[in-house]
Amino acid sequence: MKRIDLSPFELQVFLVLVETGSFRAVAHHFALSQPAVSRAVARIEQRIGARLFDRTSRSVALTPQGEALLPIARRVIHDLTTSLDEITQSLSAIGGHVAIAALPSIASAILPPLFARLHRDDPEIRLSIIDTLLDGVTGAVAQGEVDFGIAVEPSRRLPDLVFEPLTTDRFVAVLSARHALASLPDLSWADLATHPVVAMRSLTSVRQLTDEGFASAGCAVVPAFEVSHLASAGALVAAGLGVTALPELALKAFDTEGIVTRPLTAPVVHRAICLVQRRGRTLSPTAALVRQRLLMLAP
């Protein structure tokens, strides 16, 4: 038996004509001309292979074949409408998992307030953080392992990624409260260079910017200590073993008891913190909500 091929629109024309009994009403409902409605009905009957309506100058009535089609058409349109509603709800629903990659100094400063608000307002959202170095953040975003990242923009061009400015973070001098320089209201990079320096490892984005700061001040610095973690830098400074320069937000990553900070000048160095997304990728509604909240809460 040959399959009858009717479109949802044709079934809807059939149902509206049954409900209204008027070609004019159907034409108004679908914003069509009456001849267009007549052609559509004729096309339906041709595909069905049977007359569906008895027409007179005053009325339109279903034939027995039309009566047989009516419950089937209603069921098909109901099921289609229900399925489309489910798709709409699924695509617009807020919930599920959102993954973010971020530099450790940013993850500890910016993300906790965001996560606290989301936990309060949208507890159905599950969140995870990959706290890693710059190459790890950009790699995770590029490979689609996370929804978006938070990092500084690297010096090399990454055409597959989009960097959107989020906030700026100024570098400050970090030293023991007992250190001789602690009595000064502000410090220069040259001031720090005259003392043992605690530096982050060369692979970190913080190290790249501190090297630039010392170089701009005309100072060649050989670190007394190199560390991988901010907490280690803080502990060495608190013990009076050296001084360091860190972004202000990074100070939230470790215990600052016994430590003081001073503004760094000559030059003033900032790092631009950006949202990182893969070019051409559309965020899910949930990830888009998290991104929006992050923009609102950024310092």
Automatic annotation (TrEMBL):
Keywords: DNA-binding, Transcription, Transcription regulation
Keyword Transcription regulation appears in the UniProt entry: yes
Entry-linked InterPro entries: HTH-type_LysR_regulators, LysR_HTH_N, LysR_subst-bd, WH-like_DNA-bd_sf, WH_DNA-bd_sf
Tagged with keyword Membrane: no
Stored CDD domains: PBP2_LTTR_like_4
The HTH lysR-type domain, residue ranges: 11-63
GO MF entries: DNA binding; DNA-binding transcription factor activity
Cellular compartments per GO CC: cytosol
Family listed: Belongs to the LysR transcriptional regulatory family.
Protein name: LysR family carnitine catabolism transcriptional activator
